Automatic annotation (TrEMBL):
Family: Belongs to the class-IV pyridoxal-phosphate-dependent aminotransferase family.
GO molecular function terms listed in the Swiss-Prot or TrEMBL record: transaminase activity
Cofactor: pyridoxal 5'-phosphate
UniProt keywords, alphabetically: Aminotransferase, Pyridoxal phosphate, Transferase
InterPro entries in the cross-refs: Aminotrans_IV, Aminotrans_IV_CS, Aminotransferase-like, BCAT-like_C, BCAT-like_N, Class-IV_PLP-Dep_Aminotrnsfr
One GO location term (cellular component): cytosol
Organism: Fusobacterium nucleatum
Name of this protein: Aminotransferase, class IV
PANTHER family reported in the protein's UniProt record: AMINO-ACID AMINOTRANSFERASE, AMINODEOXYCHORISMATE LYASE
Pfam family, one: Aminotran_4
């Protein structure tokens, strides 16, 4: 695979999308295309719009029989990469739930890069690796005001007395595709959430395009006895996938 050096690979001025393939079909493809094409415009990048035909051409030329796979698309000024990889989440992950810790790295809610899925992804990867070494599955970032924002690869939802809360976009986070699905299908309160509120929640679940909805077993030393709502939403989400 030949990659040309450009501003995407020199300075991170490129974009990517990670898309779940379910039985060969790209889940929420229109949403992913809309997001990456909006980012091209918002960031003023010299990149051609990503078209649906390009995605299907690649998929038609790269078929296999796995139920779940991952499609990654990377765009920069001189490069358009389409890559498939194995889906690694297992039933054991869903049964156990994710373990979270609070990162010491702060999200910059004043930076445009925070709100787009760009090749400036170093904080996410390094903090995720650090959390793994400490025995956690996912770090959660605070912003400069000590407000909860998102995980390294996920959006966060918290449940208090059967009410679902999630951080406002203005707190500094990526508007995840499954985050949008949850907000569109459930009563969700978008608000500013601090650590005290987080530590007093009844339940937490995470969302991203690959695992969909993942319940949380603990936030550092705090153990969550309930994963009921998150797992119920996951079952509904699986039914949705089965009908696409």
């Amino acid at each position: 695979m030949l990659i040309e050096l450009d501003e995407g690979y020199s300075f991170g001025l490129g974009l990517f999308e990670t898309i779940l393939l379910y039985k060969g079909k790209p889940v929420f493809l229109d949403k992913h295309l809309s997001r990456i094409n909006k980012s091209i415009v918002d960031l003023g990048l010299n990149i051609d719009k990503l078209e649906k035909d390009e995605v299907f051409q690649y998929l038609n030329n790269n078929k296999n029989t796995f139920e779940y796979e991952v499609l990654k698309i990377v765009l920069s000024e001189k490069n358009r990469l389409f890559l498939k990889r194995e889906y690694t989440y297992t039933e054991k992950d869903y049964q156990k739930g994710f373990s979270l810790n609070i990162s010491k790295v702060r999200r910059n809610e004043s930076s445009i890069f925070t709100f787009h899925k760009t090749l400036n992804y170093g904080d996410n990867i390094l903090e995720k690796r650090k959390s793994k070494k400490l025995g956690y599955d996912e770090p959660i970032f605070l912003n400069s005001k000590n407000q909860i924002t998102e995980g390294a690869t996920s959006n966060i939802f918290v449940v208090v007395e059967n009410k679902i809360y999630t951080p406002k976009l203005s707190c500094g986070l990526l508007n995840g595709i499954v985050r949008q699905y949850i907000i569109s299908n459930y009563d969700v309160i978008e608000s500013e959430i601090d650590l005290e509120f987080l530590n007093n929640t009844d339940e937490i679940f995470l969302t991203n395009s690959l695992f969909g909805i993942m319940s949380v077993s603990n936030l550092e030393k705090k153990i969550f006895k309930s994963q009921k709502l998150g797992k119920n939403i996951l079952q509904n989400y699986k039914k949705y996938l089965g009908n696409i």
